[in-house]
Design brief:
This protein has 318 residues and is mainly beta. The protein is 10% helix and 53% strand. It has five helices and 17 strands. The radius of gyration is 21 Å and the shape is globular.
């Protein structure tokens, strides 16, 4: 049991930077908005699908790989939106994994013409697991890492319910919202101890500026500005930036960090990354790629982060 705990400690130490934030972070957070808040469920035309795959710090073997699939539907006749989200995150050479399936419901309140307020709830089930076959125990170090271990490797996963909520104010051009995740602070310990998931608070918003030209263009042209602030436990972070869109292409620039408001230690500013985004729209399919340029102390060893997003929106005629 002692070696088993030591092995888990080593894995946890290896993923310490991710543990600071607890939840996986996404650079293109606007590509799967229901990951930010359940209040975005049903804000599309009718049915919307989104997929994000992220490889963070690829120079560190098996660091963090995240995939998120989201499906939401607008029930206009019921002033409601429904969402379904599947999220998977693995880290520490794949030894630790986190998989969740979440259902979401949002109710839309019309304040006045084209101005809406949407309170929402979500309920999910999470499986948190460790793959002991990817770990090396003390007795294996003594006899050789290819040998088996005499340690008890049963009880390698835990399942729990996870609750969240959100509130969104939006118009055709402006949106502003808040969300709470892990409201029940579930216990995710794999060692029969208590390790509560810290509640996460986020505030997010954006504004779309449509560009006008003396020449009538067939392709819509606009700038979109957005931000996403999140706080979990003792740590917080801010993503903000903008992208320019003129169908069928879009390009953007984003910053992540809080350098003027918070420092972890003297001389250590809270700077994380600068992200560059490019993408295209093919018929009803939106494809995006972003690369995070690390500007923290991991600059020379992380190799940044790659993220690919796919979005598809279906509008059915009444």
């Amino acid at each position: 049991m002692r070696n088993r705990a030591t092995a888990l400690f080593v894995v946890c130490w290896a993923i310490l930077p991710r543990a600071f934030a607890q939840d996986a972070q996404l650079t293109q957070f606007y590509a799967t908005p229901t990951y930010i808040s359940p209040a975005f469920a049903g804000t599309g035309l009718q049915t919307r699908l989104g997929l994000v795959v992220r490889d963070q710090w690829p120079a560190i073997p098996g660091a963090f790989v995240t995939a998120n699939f989201a499906l939401d539907h607008n029930l206009s006749g019921m002033n409601s939106g429904l969402g379904l989200m599947v999220h998977h995150d693995r880290s520490g050479s794949g030894a630790l994994s986190y998989t969740s399936v979440t259902g979401q419901y949002a109710y839309e309140i019309q304040l006045k013409r084209k101005v809406f307020l949407r309170p929402a709830l979500q309920v999910g089930y999470v499986n948190h697991a460790v793959d002991y076959s990817r770990l090396v125990f003390g007795d294996q170090l003594a006899r050789g890492s290819n040998s088996g271990t005499s340690e008890n490797t049963e009880g390698n996963s835990i399942g729990y319910a996870d609750l969240g909520s959100g509130l969104l104010f939006f118009t055709p051009k402006l949106w502003l919202g808040v969300a709470l995740h892990h409201m029940n602070r579930p216990n995710q310990s794999l060692l029969q101890n208590e390790a509560r998931v810290p509640m996460k608070f986020s505030m997010h918003g954006g504004y779309r500026v449509s560009l006008r030209s003396p020449v009538i263009r067939k392709e819509p042209e606009s700038f979109v500005f957005a931000f996403n602030y999140k706080s979990q436990g003792k740590f917080d972070q801010l993503d903000f930036g903008a992208y320019y869109e003129r169908e069928p292409f879009f390009v953007g620039l984003w910053y992540r960090g809080l350098p003027l408001m918070k420092r972890y230690a003297p001389g250590y500013a809270n700077n994380d990354a600068i992200a560059i985004l490019v993408g295209t729209i093919v018929n009803d399919l939106r494809i995006g790629y972003s690369y995070d340029i690390t500007i923290s102390r991991l600059t020379t060893s992380s190799a940044g982060a790659h993220e690919i997003t796919l979005g598809y929106e279906i509008a059915t005629e009444a």
